[in-house]
Amino acid sequence: MKIALITDGIYPYVLGGMQKHSYYLAKYLAQQGVEVDLFHYNQSSLDIDVLDVFTDDEKKNIHSYVLEFPESIKFPGHYIYRSYKYSEAIYELIRNKTDSYDFIYTKGFSGWKLISEKKKGKIQCCPIGVKFHGYEMFQVAPDFKTKLQHYMLRPFVRKISREADVVFSYGGKITELITALGIKRSRIIEIPSGIESRHVSNRTSPTNNPVKFVFLGRYERRKGIEELNEVLLKMARQRQEICFGFIGPIPEEKKLNLPGITYFGEIRNYNDVKNLLIQHDVLVCPSWSEGFPNVILEAMASGLAVIATDTGAVSRLVDQQNGELIKVRNKQELEAALDHLSESALLEPLKEASLSRIKENFTWEILISRLIKKIEAIVKQDHGS
């Protein structure tokens, strides 16, 4: 089988959860013998022509097409404009060879022009699927500026999703958002994201006393650090001791000067992050909006229980068996969850459940086989139509 994977970059050449997902798609499809034409760009100082993030065997099945992401002056909607221009550049590269593919997998806006031209009947090609990560532009916005950005993105995302042959979803509330756009359930393919099995711990670490909580990620308003800080300050005023670590680039003005709170700063090396995670017991992810958070996957693979907001497809990962699933923006539920999981005696079965859930359902070795079967079914149906 031959697939075109049209992306807005792959990790580590472009940073982000979507880019990390694209990297794993290319890697594991290639491992399974699928021929992958990879369309992407470079936002780093790394030599993208070498592609040393893949093994020599993987590179035998990966054909790289590197483009420039268009620049423009800043104006309202400039990102949408640049994304469309990027999709135009990709279209010019691929338009004369679409009949060489069995399936085309597009990420975000990168397949915009291609999908539009097929819908208009200007080109004949195989089925095209689109993935918009967590459809965050249809989720709750944490502030007015983000809300405006969401409103600008929505009509374009809706149009592209409706015109694609199939739409990929992580499941959970993301599938609900997609169906609300008028897309039939039969056109939605649910495939979660995952983690490499080599990054999954063999066993959980002994629970700390006192329990150690951790936040992993950069400062971004939608990540819920403002609400988390308010809760931690309130607990401190009530003389409730809590041991909490922050891993990631948190601005100085957002840091709390409280006993028991540690800021580790930005750590890019995966093994260093892993070593810090296993020293903690509970990941806290109080986001306003999410897709299928890598931080939760990584924490569960390290044997941590999880407190997270019920947004995106988070409910596929977190429930009462391995932590607490709370309402978005609900500081009372966040405080109650922190207080409840401060009881170290409760945590061992929750931590074990996190690790087991990852091993049984969310490794890339398992997920890529499911994805290939679903794509093969789409291809077969297209050939029969």
Short structural summary:
The chain contains 12 helices and 13 strands. The protein is α/β, with parallel strands linked by helices.
Question: What share of residues is helical?
Answer: 25-40%
CATH superfamily of the largest domain: Glycogen Phosphorylase B
Taking all Cα atoms into account, the compactness measure Rg is: 21 Å
Strand order of the largest sheet: 3-2-1-4-5-6-7
Q: SSE order in H/E notation?
A: EHEHEHEHEHEHEEHEEHEHEEHHH
CATH architecture of the largest domain: 3-Layer(aba) Sandwich
The chain-level mean pLDDT equals 94
Unreliable spans are none
Explain the overall architecture.
This protein has twelve helices and 13 strands. By secondary structure, it is of the alpha/beta class. The protein has two domains: 2-194 and 363-384, Rossmann fold (3-Layer(aba) Sandwich); 198-361, Rossmann fold (3-Layer(aba) Sandwich), CATH 3.40.50. The strands form two sheets. Strands 3-2-1-4-5-6-7 form a seven-stranded parallel β-sheet, sandwiched between helices. Helix 7 links the parallel strand 8 and strand 9 (243-247). Helix 7 packs across helix 10 and helix 9 packs across helix 11. The model has no long low-confidence stretch (mean pLDDT 94).
